[in-house]
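> call design_seq(struct)
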């Protein structure tokens, strides 16, 4: 009788929820007995029971009422020990009205609250110990994000920065910063369970849990962390089921005062393919951006990196590197690593010539295959002037025009800042570059012969990018 009743309840439920949810949360349930209008069902774990009561309580109530009547009630038999081949699983009965959320614990048993189990989890936080606040250089480009991150590290889950969302482009230090937060929390609060995960890995874990019918263990694992750090949340785009699970995990953690830290490549308002209810929660705390490092910050990064590796280089080399690579921190660190490697392997001193040699193979790539040096060479050949004259102080008219044209194309064809472009033309000020660009635009509008020359140079430069 109880099997027939539960079968009808399943038919009622199946018509009202997605197939995947039905397969995950209702097919594993086993009907046990029906006595005095009380239907007892067996569920695989305590968390499974809690999930049903939290998310499907009203649906269960409707199903029971439709098959047993308004006086029908539901009782759970919760498996707390899976047993073995020789022994039956050990279960504990929990009464549920199926009409309200029931947070009752099963005889106080919850392995996720077991200190030894939590200690085992806490030993594997997926954190890189090299990412620390000490080696995360602060500048105008990241001051707000770094300060907020440090505040969270000292008082996780207590500040109003929950969640903390850090966004920015590629290579600007998002992963370094949130892992530095995690490492600082582990140091300051060793009792806290900190867990870092990339959103793609989170998605793959969820898929594996679905395949292995272990979704309750997956969710329970994440619901019991103290600090959850999800990197590159934009990769949850269009993954509806993963977003749904993360939504419930997010709610549980936030409601229980746990800290949530996330990164993305854009602010929450610009995230595409994510559920509106999820994006709205991302806005609850603080959103801080990371920008491209300015010149002074790049110099500090270079000096810090060289100091850590025990290498001393002249200030002019530091400035040259800082001027030449202004895209992002990752590219800058790549240049530094290449410079150190060449110096150590070839046993050469780190000087300006070595730096220029290294950058010939790197900066060109950064600048979409058209670098300032190539632009200077092309323009000087076209106007029949020496390339070095473009960097000299001479004010000869033909050289000034060639220099201004080279600056004009440097601004259009490279990622260099105005200050960096000026540096490559004899250390000139950024205002000189602005004047050069304006002068070229004026001559293009008023001088047909000059406009033809610029068009011809454009063709030569574009051939380099093909």
């Amino acid at each position: 009788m109880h099997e027939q009743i539960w079968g009808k309840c399943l038919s009622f439920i199946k018509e009202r929820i997605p197939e995947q949810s039905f397969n995950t949360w209702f097919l594993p349930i086993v009907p046990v007995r029906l006595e005095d209008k009380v239907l007892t069902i067996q569920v695989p774990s305590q968390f499974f029971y809690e999930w049903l009561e939290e998310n499907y309580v009203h649906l269960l109530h409707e199903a029971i009422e439709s098959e047993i009547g308004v006086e029908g009630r539901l009782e759970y038999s919760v498996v707390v020990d899976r047993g073995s081949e020789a022994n039956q699983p050990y279960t504990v009965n929990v009464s549920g009205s199926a009409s309200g959320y029931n947070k009752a614990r099963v005889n106080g048993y919850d392995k996720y609250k077991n200190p030894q189990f939590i200690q085992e989890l806490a030993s594997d936080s997926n954190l890189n110990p090299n990412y620390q606040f000490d080696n995360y250089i602060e500048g105008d480009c990241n001051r707000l994000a770094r300060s907020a991150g440090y505040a969270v590290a000292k008082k996780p889950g207590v500040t109003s920065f929950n969640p903390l969302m850090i966004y920015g482009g590629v290579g600007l230090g998002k992963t370094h910063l949130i892992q530095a937060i995690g490492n600082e929390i582990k140091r300051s609060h060793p009792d806290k369970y900190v867990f870092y995960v990339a959103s793609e890995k989170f998605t793959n874990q969820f898929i594996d849990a679905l395949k292995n019918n272990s979704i309750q263990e997956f969710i329970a694992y994440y619901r019991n962390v103290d600090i959850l750090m999800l990197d590159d949340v934009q990769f949850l785009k269009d993954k509806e089921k993963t977003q749904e699970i993360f939504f419930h995990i997010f709610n549980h953690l936030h409601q229980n005062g746990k800290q949530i830290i996330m990164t993305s490549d854009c602010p929450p308002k610009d995230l595409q393919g994510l559920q509106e209810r999820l994006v709205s929660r991302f806005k609850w705390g603080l959103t801080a951006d990371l920008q491209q490092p300015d010149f002074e910050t790049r110099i500090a990064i270079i000096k810090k990196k060289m100091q850590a590796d025990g290498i001393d280089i002249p200030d002019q080399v530091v400035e040259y590197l800082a001027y030449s690579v202004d895209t992002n921190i990752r590219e800058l660190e790549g240049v530094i690593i290449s410079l150190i490697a060449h110096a150590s392997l070839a046993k050469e001193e780190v000087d300006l010539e070595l730096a220029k040699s290294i950058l010939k193979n790197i900066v060109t790539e950064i600048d979409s295959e058209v670098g300032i040096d190539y632009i200077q060479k092309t323009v000087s050949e076209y106007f029949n002037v020496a390339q070095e004259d473009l960097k000299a102080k001479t004010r000869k008219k033909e050289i000034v025009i060639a220099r201004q044209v080279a600056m004009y194309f440097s601004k259009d064809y490279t990622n260099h800042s105005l200050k960096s472009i000026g540096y490559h033309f004899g250390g000139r000020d950024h205002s000189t570059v602005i004047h050069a660009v304006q002068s070229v635009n004026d001559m293009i509008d008023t001088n047909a012969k000059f406009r033809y020359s610029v068009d011809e140079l454009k063709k030569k430069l574009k051939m380099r990018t093909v």
